[in-house]
Specification:
The complex is a heterodimer of chains A (165) and B (558). Chain A is mainly alpha-helical. Chain A has helices at residues 3-8, 23-45, 60-68, 75-91, 100-111, 114-132, 144-149. Chain A is globular, with a radius of gyration of 16 Å. By secondary structure, chain B is of the alpha+beta class. Chain B has 13 helices and 23 strands. In chain B, strands 1, 2, 6, 7, 8, 9 and 23 form a 7-stranded mixed beta sheet that branches. Chain B has a 6-stranded antiparallel beta sheet with strand order 5-12-15-18-11-21. In chain B, strands 4-3-20-19 form a 4-stranded mixed beta sheet. In chain B, a hairpin with a 3-residue loop joins strand 13 (358-361) and strand 14 (365-368). In chain B, helix 1 runs parallel beside helix 7, helix 1 runs parallel beside helix 13 and helix 5 (132-147) crosses helix 13. Chain B starts with a strand and ends with a helix. The chains are: A mainly alpha (165), B alpha+beta (558). At the A-B interface, helix 6 and helix 7 of A face helix 2, helix 10, strand 17 and helix 11 of B.
Chain lengths: 165, 558
């Protein structure tokens, strides 16, 4: 299956004009609109009190921003992350203010759609990347993610992010 | 400056040719599209090396188009759309930097598959114009120069060797091999120690393996891994005869009717074009890209591409048949060995099985099988954690996810096997030029039509069943295998077959173009059939052989 259509399939909005927009301008504005929704979803999926560190404690939302705003990040996925959040906001007005149970119900309903499932899966991947990447990326605080699974990054550890990609 | 020899690509074959020629005193230029990442710059950054395009081009800028059959019709998908990259390490040393280095020599019968086993309908099998005897000295030379460690165990399907054993003993092994060996023996299977392009002891300025736990997909930080960069390019540079031009992408070769005159290159940083002149040209850009370069070099003298009078250029591209499988050893029911020993990181399994290299069936008769490597599941943390995203088709999150991930990563370890069997060359597996898609330098991209032969999957499945039995005997749980005819993009060969007949092959037996006397192709492109092992050792060995021939021909001209 073609990836581009895979991202669009089932979305009411489709891939919008800022697929090709520069991260610094349009992207910033769009990101701000969905930022709290993204954070809220991450925190619901990776809550406090789990055997894994919470999304909040490892700076998962900061990692997500730094990752998708990077100039080399796949522009289709960048757009998909923002569109999926907007779609969720359209489906569930006031999602960020929902109770835990309401959020669970809303996300499970979103998961019933192909589009929603793909987007939620992407959000989980981005959060897991935050949790298990080298702390040089600003997440996996004090190696909390690694410690939880007793698995550690190898040596030498990176001295720079993406070594100047 | 006119170089004696200009080599396009610095991977396994380019490095072997550069090394030999520089040592012989010739002035060589190596043109490498990627940048130089030195030993000290490498790290075990999973995000950078395994999840982003750090060592390969951005697919929106440079890509391939893939033609595959969907519901009986050929459908074309650009790789920027599928995310299926066919780049394999565009840095100095190429993908040899990133290999796990589990290597084998090809078997003598792999050089004469047609005479030995006969034709297979729908497959373009031919014998090689050389024999194992021609290549054996170079397999041995590779052990020495590249640094291949191991332990020779005689076996009916193990090719004979001219030296008694490997120059260095094998790398250290995890305790799990006790369980593996015992289980194999109980089943009447012979476990062999896998030869590895990894030093077990210091040698020169290359240090022994330090068991980082992250070998394949990563550059080596001790120099133990036998990458072209460590083993060949560095010593070649030390001769003073090598000019290594990085960030230098070759658009096409310029030629007259008889000879290649220059490479037209673009500096990938500045975008500036220039001309690199040489007396002799060696293409070593990895199979599918080497064919593409020669096709893109078409001119009025060679309208169908350089060295393509046979019409065979780009045809009979091959990959590796087979697939992989896995099983989990759980803490609770582990016998024979200690769980903590199993969980010790870094040490290898280093085991392979050649028992099924040839198969014999009461009805089908004798036919070609394949080899199997056993290893731990790749230790990348993000990718292992991500394997727990779903349960019964639904996403798992919250505390349930935490329990699942922690249990999987701390209470079991997975053993994996990889099967290598012949990818039979056929009419529906080739590379040509895409008529509409161009890369960022304005050159047509390679269009790869990919179809496997049904025999490949049949053989792979037969071997997978036998491997699953080993894992079962070891006490593994959740055993599965996945055999398919999907092309493994990192195991590519063919496209410029060598042979004695200029009408049916692109290269002669020394891998020189039949049509153009100063043009060689040194990478895996020459292989008409691929054997049932990873290609790298054969690529190294053959490139040393080709290089010796080039030295002889240059000497005779002088």
């Amino acid at each position: 299956m073609r990836r581009r259509s895979f991202f669009i399939l089932g979305s009411l909005l489709g891939l919008s004009q800022w697929v090709n927009a520069k991260p610094s301008t349009e992207f910033e504005k769009e990101f701000k609109r969905v930022e709290s929704t993204l954070r809220s979803v991450q925190e619901h999926m990776f809550p406090e009190g789990s055997q894994l560190p919470s999304a909040r404690s490892i700076n998962a939302s900061m990692f997500l921003y730094a990752t998708i705003s990077h100039k080399n990040y796949d522009k289709d996925i960048r757009a998909f992350v923002l569109e999926g959040a907007k779609e969720l906001m359209d489906r569930e007005e006031g999602f960020t203010t929902y109770s835990k149970d309401q959020k669970e119900k809303a996300l499970r309903a979103y998961e019933e759609t192909n589009y929603g499932r793909n987007w939620l899966s992407r959000m989980m991947t981005l959060t897991m990347e935050a949790m298990f990447s080298d702390p040089i990326y600003g997440s996996n605080t004090k190696e909390a993610g690694w410690k939880a699974v007793k698995s550690f990054g190898g040596y030498p550890r990176p001295k720079r992010r993406y070594i100047g990609l | 400056m006119i170089y004696d020899v200009v080599i396009i690509g610095s991977g396994a074959s380019g490095g072997a040719v550069a090394y030999t020629l520089c040592k012989a005193g010739y002035k060589v230029a190596v043109l490498e599209k990627g940048r130089l990442i030195n030993r000290d710059d490498f790290s075990k950054d999973e995000l950078a090396y395994s999840r982003r395009d750090l060592v390969t081009p951005n697919l929106f800028e440079e890509y391939h188009t893939i033609e595959s059959k969907v519901d009986g019709k050929w459908e074309i998908t650009p790789t920027y759309d599928s995310g299926w990259s066919f780049w394999n390490g565009n840095i100095v040393g190429g993908s040899s930097n990133l290999m796990s280095g589990m290597l084998h020599r090809m078997h003598p019968d792999d050089f004469r598959l047609k005479s030995k086993f006969g034709e297979i309908k729908g497959a373009n099998i031919v014998d090689w114009p050389i024999s194992y005897e021609d290549l054996e000295p170079y397999y041995t030379l590779s052990e020495e120069l590249v640094g291949i460690s191991g332990k020779f165990i005689p076996h009916a399907h193990e090719p004979h060797r001219s030296t008694k054993d490997f120059p260095q003993g094998s790398t250290k092994e995890n305790d799990v091999v006790k369980l593996f060996d015992k289980s194999c023996k109980a089943l009447g299977i012979t476990p062999l120690v896998t030869p590895r392009a990894v030093l077990s002891k210091d040698r020169g300025d290359r240090h022994a393996c330090y068991y980082s736990n992250y070998c394949g997909s990563y550059g080596c930080s001790s120099g133990a891994k036998g990458s072209s960069r460590e083993a060949l390019i560095k010593p070649a540079l030390a001769t003073g005869n090598l000019t290594l031009l990085t960030n230098t992408h070759v658009k096409y070769l310029s030629s007259d009717a008889k000879e290649v005159k220059s490479a037209i290159v673009v500096d990938t940083i500045s975008g500036k074009e220039k001309k690199i002149e040489g007396k002799l040209f060696v293409v070593a850009a990895q199979a599918h890209e080497s064919a593409r370069l020669l096709l893109n070099s078409a001119n009025e003298h060679h309208p169908d591409g350089l060295g393509n009078s046979s019409g065979e250029l780009g045809k009979n591209l091959i990959f590796s048949g087979g697939g992989s499988g896995q099983g989990e050893l759980h803490k609770d029911d582990l016998k024979e060995i200690d769980f903590d020993a199993l969980m010790t990181t870094g040490l290898f399994i280093n085991r392979s099985v050649l028992d099924w290299y040839f198969l014999d069936h009461w009805w089908y008769g004798k036919y070609k099988g394949g080899s199997v490597e056993f290893m731990f599941e790749h230790q990348n943390i993000i990718s292992r954690a991500r394997k727990n995203l779903y349960e019964e088709g639904r996403l798992v999150w919250g505390k349930a996810l935490g329990d699942k991930v922690v249990k999987r990563l701390t209470e079991q370890k997975s053993i994996r096997f990889e099967i290598f069997n012949d990818w039979l060359p056929n009419d529906n597996c080739f590379v040509s030029l895409d008529k509409t898609h161009k890369d960022k330098y304005g050159m047509p991209v390679g269009k790869l039509r990919l179809e496997g032969h049904p025999q490949d999957v049949k053989v792979g499945k037969e071997i997978a069943k036998k491997c699953e039995k080993i894992l079962k005997k070891m006490g593994a749980k959740n055993i599965y295998s996945a055999i398919s005819s999907t092309a493994a993009q990192n195991l590519v060969a063919g496209g410029c077959r060598f042979g004695n007949d200029p009408k049916t092959s692109v290269l002669n037996k020394y891998c020189r173009s039949h049509d153009i006397k100063n043009l060689y192709v040194a990478d895996a492109s020459f292989m008409p059939t691929g054997g049932s092992v990873a290609y790298t050792w054969t690529i190294y060995a053959n490139a040393f052989r080709v290089a010796d021939h080039i030295v002889e021909s240059l000497k005779s001209k002088a």
